[in-house]
Amino acid sequence: MIMVTGANGQLASLTLHELAARDIPAVGGTRTPTEGQRFIDFDDPARLDLTGISTLVLISAGYAEDDRVITRHRTVLDAAARDGVAHVIYTSLTRAGDHLGFALAHRVTEQMIRTSGLPWTILRNGLYAELFGALLTWTPAGLESAFGDGALAAVARGDLSAAAAVVASDPPTHRGATYDLVGEPITASDVAARLGVTHRTIGLSEYRARLLADDTLLAFQPPMLASIASSIRHGLLRDTGSDLRRLLDRPLTDALGVAADIAAAMRPNGM
Ligand SMILES: NC(=O)c1ccc[n+]([C@@H]2O[C@H](COP(=O)([O-])OP(=O)(O)OC[C@H]3O[C@@H](n4cnc5c(N)ncnc54)[C@H](OP(=O)(O)O)[C@@H]3O)[C@@H](O)[C@H]2O)c1
């Protein structure tokens, strides 16, 4: 049986849909299970039970400081080894993302997986097109961001979930593989043009000041978001690759369209 963790999250729920569409049995693991799901909370080691699971799709549980994220991932990998899981598929971060604030937790997790003794596949996911669209800000004059003219090889979340389902459907074929799953480069100006507005670039100091003034953000988020902006702005996340297209065996979803749809949905009334 396949288990996909983080089942109520967006990437995991799309992956479970992809598997269901292929008639491949899979169960969702989540902190808040409903019927047919299993309780999985990496912060609750005493209750982690992976018995009966052959393939574990370990969706990274980010959104915390490195020590917490790494402890979560170590906990679930220990449980996988203990309970006889036969293959772990981990959703990591694109190779080009090494300079991002959350890269360290992914790279340490990759090391833990490679030395765990468990058969594995690492999916190095690029940044979501949905995230790129959501990070653009509306003003009465149009869109604003700290991305400058920098491009992001953005990828639709749905394409990443389809890739996870392809690998989970046939783990032995992908044993020991690390795939770099990125899309086509898009810029903030491309998104603005698609929406018929202009894009204005702000500096990284102004961006960080705005992030620090936002009391809805957790302490680790302003440096993380500033690192995304700087990496895109300076071209580190621009390059595309062929792994995702090869795994999916179809053209990729239009990342620009996805980012534009998200930005359009966030447009306040009257702007
Ligand atoms: N590539 C990108 O652009 C990008 C962007 C944002 C995040 N990410 C990373 O990719 C992951 C998946 O993205 P997503 O879009 O699906 O994010 P999401 O919708 O926010 O889902 C994240 C899920 O992580 C699970 N989780 C959190 N804490 C956990 C814990 N202690 N134990 C077990 N599971 C836990 C939760 O699942 P349940 O609620 O079902 O327990 C949560 O719904 C994120 O967690 C993050 O690490 C990538």
TrEMBL record:
Domain NAD(P)-binding: 6-127
Matches recorded under Gene3D superfamilies: NAD(P)-binding Rossmann-like Domain, UDP-galactose 4-epimerase, domain 1
InterPro entries (alphabetical): NAD(P)-bd_dom, NAD(P)-bd_dom_sf, NmrA-type_oxidoreductase
Entry protein name: NAD(P)H-binding protein
Species this chain originates from: Microbacterium thalli
Lineage, opening ranks: Bacteria, Bacillati, Actinomycetota, Actinomycetes, Micrococcales
